[in-house]
Write a structure and sequence with these properties.
Layout: H1 3-34, H2 37-40, H3 55-84, E1 88-90, H4 92-114, H5 123-149, E2 155-157
Antiparallel strand pairs: 1-2
Helix pairs in contact: 1-3, 4-5
């Protein structure tokens, strides 16, 4: 692998990383916006943040950023399986955050299905899904904060020492 190919791969990883951060930030913001907390605590009264109190705006933005997260996840998994499997090793932190993201995607897809007209899920199961989704969000935020504080990476390069 020459310098230019390695350089573009590094740039691509940086771009994917920032898209991931942006999507997680806006998914968290719009997810909490779907609950009426921004209006209740007058955060939506701050100039420029009135859109946070509008349910349909926050839900459609939540869906849009969820689609972005699904695309990023599919890209990263595909790249890992086809090109990086032999050169990188997932860390414990990476497995934990990956499992949380997988749980969020699963519960999120089920919650979208629940919003369809004839879904037919039991009310108790719907509440369970919402609580699981919220718990997983909080778990991802805590795991991400832990990773930032203690400098935990998703993966380690097998070719580099340490």
């Amino acid at each position: 692998m020459d310098f230019e190919e390695n350089h573009t791969r590094s740039e691509r990883k940086t771009i994917i990383y920032y898209f991931y951060l942006i999507s997680v930030f806006f998914l968290t913001l719009t997810g909490f916006g779907n609950m009426p907390i921004f209006k209740r605590y007058y955060i939506a009264d701050i100039p420029g943040l009135g859109w946070l109190a509008k349910f349909y705006v926050t839900i459609y933005l939540h869906y849009l950023f969820a689609i972005l997260l699904l695309g990023i996840t599919a890209y990263v998994i595909t790249e890992y399986v086809y090109t990086n499997r032999k050169s990188i090793k997932m860390t414990l932190s990476g497995y934990i955050r990956g499992a949380i993201v997988a749980g969020l995607i699963t519960t999120g897809i089920l919650l979208v299905i629940i919003n369809l007209k004839y879904s037919g899920f039991a009310p108790g199961f719907i509440i369970f899904l919402y609580l699981c989704h919220l718990t997983l969000v909080m778990g991802l935020l805590i795991a991400g904060l832990h990773s930032v504080i203690f400098k935990k990476k998703w993966y380690l390069n097998k070719n580099l020492p340490g």
